[in-house]
Design a protein that fits this description.
This is Peptidase M24 family protein. Belongs to the peptidase M24B family. InterPro entries: Creatin/AminoP/Spt16_N, Creatinase/aminopeptidase-like, Creatinase_N, Pept_M24, Pept_M24B, Peptidase_M24_C, X-Pro_aminopeptidase_P. One of its GO terms (cellular component) is cytoplasm. The protein is α+β, with helices and mostly antiparallel strands. The chain is built from 19 helices and 28 strands. The strands form eight sheets. Strands 4-3-2-1-5-6 form a six-stranded mixed β-sheet. It has a six-stranded mixed β-sheet with strand order 12-11-10-8-13-14, sandwiched between helices. A hairpin with an 8-residue loop joins strand 22 and strand 23. Helix 14 (about 310-340) packs across helix 15. It is globular and about 70 Å long.
Length: about 600
């Protein structure tokens, strides 16, 4: 009999832990590749708790006197969502970074406890940190033999067996052989024999392959070991291997069954092997150490070149953005007609937006679950609409839609906030929207010296909100892949830090926001490309941003008196480019709407 309630699932897990003589267990959102988005088979936290956000961790101890003993940890993006989805009668809520699972266990684990963890789901650094925290209570961290949730999850889905797909060299801009040669050159220069690559997007980039194994991210499940002679071993389910894939990879890439990966790690005995501690689970380090390999912690050699888009990838992204911008503009035109009638809800809006993208004929998937938030739901930063939370788009309210598409030539991500008429938006809403817009423009116009990292630019986007004593609890920008992950490192724009300098060819988002709990959310997001800038008389090399996203920004929410002449000029120029690029792709009614949406602001 399947367990239909999360209370029953929590009880079943506790019984399994007791059978294994464990006093607790840590449940992350993760897979064997430390992916951001994971396949259905790895959605253990959601199965256990009901929480469906993209980041979170749970710690389950024996039931306490208060009937709980279980805590779920989320960051500021999910403070509201976790309370809606996870039953507070059985779970406590903890906020990151104010605390962490390690700190919490150091304070709350029973004296002498044995706390279990799955070494295939956590980094080595995480395990070391937690073990150190537990030592204060004479407790120990125990690597389990088989995940205890898998033992009680009776209808757990199997990992995908869909075929891996070839990604054309014309879209990649570089052959896999050339990429492997660069990695081999790096290995040789560092005196290394091999590098273990578990990150799915790195594997996809290195081998020029894609897949459908993870919703919203076009990757294929597998592991790679790349060698200093420019060959590589790909460990993958044989059911995923097609003749086309074999021909594409050639003789220099050996294909082996996925279950052969652990043995291949053992075969690296005596070799100098690079592993990225930020992208490899603890179990990989343990296997190499036990085999007698000399493990060298080093950054995944695919990460940086993957982030710096070549000319073909840049051209592909511009084409994808033009196509996607037309789809989103068609949606906004439709919304302007349908929503004021009061007949549209969040689910219907998200479905219609997806239909417009599918109408391009090129959409392979969404790049993430569409955030379709009306009124107070828009204030939930990473809101995910469901039948239970679905709200109508009420006339006289704010609607936020954050969405994106996966196309063979590029990955898109755009947020627009719109006023659902009729009537004018309240002055306070216009004030907040315009402050967000001013920050967006300030970042879009930024010119900065080579060597600048994203944290040094973050204040540009927040300054006008800070002047009003308000802020937002998420980063201002993240990297974006080329028909890969919509959230791609190592670059980012965030006050939380990050020391990766921005390099020409990197794509990042520009997405300041404001969220009034219980009322509305505002976010304006475009993707931008880091590009060289020429400044007369400049000393050294300078960079700036090319805006790639072309969709109108809602003029009904702008208080133009708050914009200075340079900001108005930027917005008018942006809208002129939108009209020129997107207008020819639209039919007559939508094109007329676009002309009005892109009309110049009236100077104050």
């Amino acid at each position: 009999m399947l367990m239909s309630t999360h209370e029953a699932r929590l009880d079943a897990l506790r019984k399994e832990l007791a059978r294994r003589e464990l006093d607790g267990f840590v449940v992350p959102i993760s897979d064997e590749h430390m992916s951001e988005y994971v396949g259905a088979y790895a959605q253990r936290l959601q199965w256990l708790t009901g929480f469906n956000g993209s980041a979170g961790t749970a710690v389950v101890l024996a039931q306490g006197a208060d009937g709980k003993g279980a805590t779920i940890f989320v960051d500021g993006r999910y403070t509201l969502q976790v309370r809606d989805q996870v039953d507070g009668a059985h779970w406590d809520y903890a906020s990151v970074p104010e605390t962490s699972p390690a700190k919490w266990l150091g304070d709350h684990a029973p004296e002498g406890a044995r706390i279990g963890y799955d070494a295939w789901l956590h980094s080595r650094t995480w395990a070391e940190t937690v073990a150190k925290a537990l030592a204060k209570r004479n407790a120990t961290l125990v690597a389990v033999d088989g995940n205890p949730i898998d033992a009680v999850w009776q209808d757990r889905p199997a990992p995908s067996r869909a075929p891996a797909l070839v990604h054309a060299d014309t879209l990649a801009g570089q052959s896999s052989a050339d990429k492997r040669a660069v990695v081999a050159q790096w290995l040789t220069g560092e005196g290394l024999d091999a590098v273990v690559i578990p990150a799915l997007d790195s594997i996809a980039w290195l081998l020029n392959i894609r897949g459908t194994d993870v919703d919203r991210t076009p990757v294929a499940l597998g592991f790679v070991i790349a060698h200093a002679d420019a060959t590589a071993d790909l460990f993958i389910d044989p059911a995923k291997v097609t003749p086309e894939l074999t021909a594409h990879l050639g003789h220099a890439v050996r294909i082996a069954p996925l279950d052969g990966f652990a043995g291949a790690l053992q075969a690296l005995a005596g070799k100098r092997v690079a592993v990225d501690p930020d992208h490899a689970v603890a179990a990989i380090f343990t296997a190499l150490d036990s085999a007698g390999a000399q493990v060298v912690s080093a950054s995944d050699p695919c990460v940086l070149p993957k982030a710096v888009k070549n000319a073909a990838e840049q051209a592909g992204h511009r084409a994808a953005q033009a196509r996607d911008g037309a789809a989103v503009s068609r949606f906004l035109h439709w919304l302007s007609v349908a929503a004021p009638q009061g007949t549209v809800d969040e689910l219907a809006a998200a479905a219609r937006l997806q239909a417009f993208r599918e109408g391009t004929g090129s959409l392979r998937d969404l790049s993430f679950d569409t955030i379709s938030g009306s009124g107070p739901n828009g204030a939930i930063v990473h809101y995910r609409v469901s039948e239970e939370t679905n709200r109508p788009l009420v006339p006289g309210s704010v609607y936020l839609v954050d969405s994106g598409g996966q196309y063979p030539d590029g990955t898109t991500d755009i947020t627009r906030t719109v006023w659902i008429g009729p009537g004018d938006a309240p002055a306070d809403v216009k004030d907040r929207f315009t402050r967000v817009l001013k920050g967006h423009i300030a970042l879009a116009r930024a010119v900065f010296p080579q060597g600048t990292n994203g944290s040094q630019l973050d204040t540009l986007a927040r300054q006008f909100l800070w002047q009003a004593g308000i802020d937002y609890a998420h980063g201002t920008g993240h990297g974006v892949g080329s028909f890969l992950s919509v959230h791609e490192g190592p670059q980012r724009i965030s006050k939380a830090g990050g020391n990766q300098e921005l390099l020409a060819g990197m794509i990042v988002s520009n997405e300041p926001g404001y969220y009034k709990t219980g009322e509305y959310g505002i976010r304006i997001e475009n993707l931008v490309l880091v590009e060289p800038r020429t400044i007369a008389g400049a000393e050294g090399e300078w960079l700036g941003f090319e805006t790639l996203t072309h969709v109108p920004i809602d003029r009904a929410l702008i208080d133009s008196t708050l914009l200075d002449p340079a900001e108005r000029a930027w917005l008018d120029a942006y809208h002129a480019r939108v009209l020129a690029l997107i207008g020819p792709q639209l039919d007559d009614d939508a094109r007329d709407w676009l002309r009005r949406a892109c009309a110049p602001l009236v100077s104050a």
